[in-house]
Amino acid sequence: MPEAKAVGGVTAADVAEGLRLTKEYLVAANLDREVMYGAEPTKALGLIDPLQKDHLSRLRSR
Asked: For 59, which DSSP code?
């Protein structure tokens, strides 16, 4: 994972947290053993903002 650096007014700590969450999401959505065998990626879906109901609905319908 790249080293987090401050950018555009966002602190290095916030960039690092964003990178960590992105990695966690990608692993949960694509590399989780149960998901690879067809299970719903509930951990990945749990990382998405619950206020994005339309986006979550589209992801769950796939």
From this structure: H
DSSP conformation class of 38: T
Q: Work out the average pLDDT over 33-48.
A: 92
- Residues comprising the chain, all counted: 62
Q: Under 8 Å CB-to-CB from 7, ≥6 apart: which residues?
A: 15
Three-class SS of residue 4?
coil
Q: What's the CA gap between 5 and 54, in Å, rounded?
A: 32
Q: Is 57 exposed, middle or buried (0-12, 13-18, 19+ CB in 10 A)?
A: exposed
Cβ-based neighbour number of residue 59 at 10 Å: 15
Whole-model pTM? Answer: 0.75
The H-or-E segment that residue 28 falls in is helix 12-30
